[in-house]
Amino acid sequence: MITVGYARVSSREQADNSHALEQQCDRIRNAGAEELFVDVESGSRDDRRQFNKLIDLVRKGQVKEIVVTRLDRLTRSLPTLRKTIDDLQKHNCNLRALDDSIDLKTAAGKFHLNMLGALAEMEVDRLSERVQHGWQHLRDRKVAMNSPFGYIKVNNQHQLDHNPFLCLIIGQCEMSKAAIAREIVDAFLEKKTLRQCLREINTRYGIQTFAHNNKPGEPKKGGRVAQGVFKFSNGGLSNWLRNPVLRGHLPYLRKDKNGRAELHLNTHPEQRLISDAEGKEIESILNRNREIKGYGSTALKYPCSGLVFCAECRSSCYSTSSVNNGYRAKRLGIPKEMNYYFQCKNWTSRSCSQKTMIKMEVVEAAVIDALIKKAAQISNISQTPEFSAEPESPETQKLRSQLFQLQQINSIAPNDAIKIAIANLESQITQLRYSLSQNQEINTISQELLLWAFSDPDLWKNASDDDKKRVYRELVEAVIIRDGQVVEIRLKV
């Protein structure tokens, strides 16, 4: 059992004081914490990842004390606090707050803890009330909020942003955000699809998306970077085109009794970017495209759909197809010969340089090959004597040593008390081994599925797509492609 520290800041606190988290961590380590868990989340949330991981360790009996700087760092919710305290007391785990006189071992400490928790929850509720009153005051005054691209807030009102924003190399022409926004609207009305509109704009302004460039030996960094001063995704462009601000209206996110967002009409009609007629046409185009092309569909049509990603921009790859004998099949009435590919979705909008497609059968062959090799590796390890048994924790080994000694004594001089002690030790060892097996449950299931599915490679030659989808999604995390080649396959086992 160890002493564990927990530090937390909200996103707002982190922005106001960038050293707040560092100060907490240093104080907690100096107080004797052997391990530290950190969250950057609101204290009223119950889905904090590191906090939940800490509570799981407490419930497993692996933590003897939790150290925090203040009680509100642990939680700002009184029900959560009470539940946490129950867990700590149930598993003999103490709580120490450096700035508060808290000790769960005394009645006064428990009372003080509940009082501080109630005060912290009241302060959170009061803060929420102040924020709500502030927002209501802004809505009553019809103050503009969250200006979309192409607009700027002036005297609490939305106005078109005509300030110089960028200079085009060709023609040395200065462009404002308002002018670019109008070009985007014109491009959509001309092309009539989101992807074609983005292709036009991204090509015109040289916008591309790529992954973080990592130096050799450095750990991989997540996320994507947009090369350019602005960038829209398909969904982002759709939301932007539908924004009422572009039509001269003022929206608020708060919904009325009928579930409709609050909307003030014609608050800045002289600053509208889209006319009423253009707005109706845009809505019609978007609705029609959604019906015809299935915009927004999440259906996974092919076995590897949803698992293939671009190495350049780390976006997912869409499926596409082509016909080998289209004219001949139509002329002779014979079946069409289809080819199926994966291609980076950002290429269609020209925001990624990866144009080359890769055949689906190439991707699937690489996946199956990787799974077969992994299955063989697991099979070889499982047959090795030193790996055949499950690893035991130091606590389990200590109990097993005591059990062996008692069994030796009992074999020489049998005694009922020794038999009861032996039974207790065996029960404790069983509980510890069960706790360890729970942690490995998900990985064990994946390994068993892998060994079962790929023990015979020929089994998958005639397998159905549904069977392949189920197995691939259970075992494969991602397939990374670049220049029409599979460069990496990440497995979950």
Which terms would index this structure?
flat; single chain; alpha/beta; 18 strands; Hect, E3 ligase catalytic domain fold; Rossmann fold; 3-stranded mixed β-sheet; 48% helix; 493 residues
Short description:
By secondary structure, the protein is of the alpha/beta class. It is built from 17 helices and 18 strands. It has helices at 11-16, 20-30, 49-59, 71-74, 78-90, 107-141, 177-191, 194-205, 234-241, 276-293, 326-332, 360-382, 385-388, 394-412, 416-439, 441-454, 465-475, and strands at 2-9, 35-40, 63-68, 94-97, 151-154, 157-160, 164-168, 173-176, 208-211, 224-227, 250-255, 261-264, 308-310, 317-323, 338-344, 358-359, 476-482, 485-491.
Give a topology summary.
Elements: E1 2-9, H1 11-16, H2 20-30, E2 35-40, H3 49-59, E3 63-68, H4 71-74, H5 78-90, E4 94-97, H6 107-141, E5 151-154, E6 157-160, E7 164-168, E8 173-176, H7 177-191, H8 194-205, E9 208-211, E10 224-227, H9 234-241, E11 250-255, E12 261-264, H10 276-293, E13 308-310, E14 317-323, H11 326-332, E15 338-344, E16 358-359, H12 360-382, H13 385-388, H14 394-412, H15 416-439, H16 441-454, H17 465-475, E17 476-482, E18 485-491
Parallel strand pairs: 1-2, 1-3, 3-4, 13-17
Antiparallel strand pairs: 5-6, 7-8, 9-10, 11-12, 14-15, 15-16, 17-18
